[in-house]
Amino acid sequence: MNATNVDPAELAKFSELAHRWWDVNSEFRPLHQINPLRLGWIETFGKLHGLQVLDVGCGGGILSDAMARVGAHVTGIDLATKSLKVAQLHALETQTPNVSYREVSAEDLAAEQPGRFDVVTCMEMLEHVPDPASVVKACASLVKPGGRVFFSTLNRNPKSFLFAILGAEYILNLLPKGTHEYAKFIRPSELAAYCRDAGLQTSASRGLQYNPLTQRYWLDANTSVNYMLATQREA
Ligand code: SAH
Q1: Where are the domains of the chain?
Q2: Edge-to-edge order in the sheet of strand 143-154
């Protein structure tokens, strides 16, 4: 196993909560709520039906499962054993077709199966790893030439500190305290540079907004807090 690009404390945080991945009222509520939005955006670039899709840092499988349900053949990978077990059990219980989960790093899978996937997703994961550029590079080699890679993470600026850490963890209690570390947040320009270096061209970005009063999420052009990037591997 590639044990270098992983923070054991990060995995421990997610493992501790693993049994609650599919409880929509748990700490994972925000991921459940944004899931239809991100899947919808991904599918504006092309339907996933019938495609080979890799979900990097899949956790309990919230996105993996949804992509399989629209007809993709999904492989979810993560390094938190408990989360993968929960993902697998959920697929079994709900009879989700064409989804499988594996404990392997993106870097190791890239060495094993380069160019195997039509689409790679890597959502809300880069801000938890020591070397995000290495994960971006692995995603680029896992996707076929011309294939798409989607990332999402948190921007780094005073507003994202206020919203994603103070607001979400300390005021609204949407996330457990300590979920995110400000220094690991990634500006869109930095993520786009990692992508460029890895041979991925950025084609679009989208920001994710939340209104605490209505408790609703929506997408728009404002990438100042949580955002997604759509990229494409050079053909
Ligand atoms: N992508 C999922 C889960 C996001 S939570 C979703 O958006 O619904 C972040 C996930 O990243 C956790 O499941 C955690 O275990 C995983 N993770 C953290 N560091 C990792 C690493 N180095 N390699 C793979 N997964 C990692």
Answers
A1: 8-233
A2: 99-103, 73-78, 52-56, 117-123, 143-154, 226-233, 200-211, 216-220
Using the mean position of ligand 1's atoms as its centre, give its distance from the Cα of residue 181 in Å. Answer: 14
Whether 63 is in the pocket of ligand 1, judged by its Cβ within 6 Å, is yes
- Cα 13 to Cα 16, 59, 87, 211: the distances in Å are 5, 12, 17, 26
Q: CATH for 8-233?
A: 3.40.50.150
- Mean pLDDT in consecutive groups of 10 residues from the start of the chain, 235 residues: 82 94 96 98 98 98 98 98 97 97 98 98 98 98 98 97 94 93 97 98 97 95 98 96
Q: Which atom of ligand 1 is nearest to the CA of 63?
A: 8
DSSP conformation class of 19: G
Neighbours of 163 (CB within 10 A): 21
pTM of the model: 0.97
Pocket perturbation via mutation, ligand 1, pick of 125, 139, 150, 175 by most ligand atoms within 8 A of CB: 125
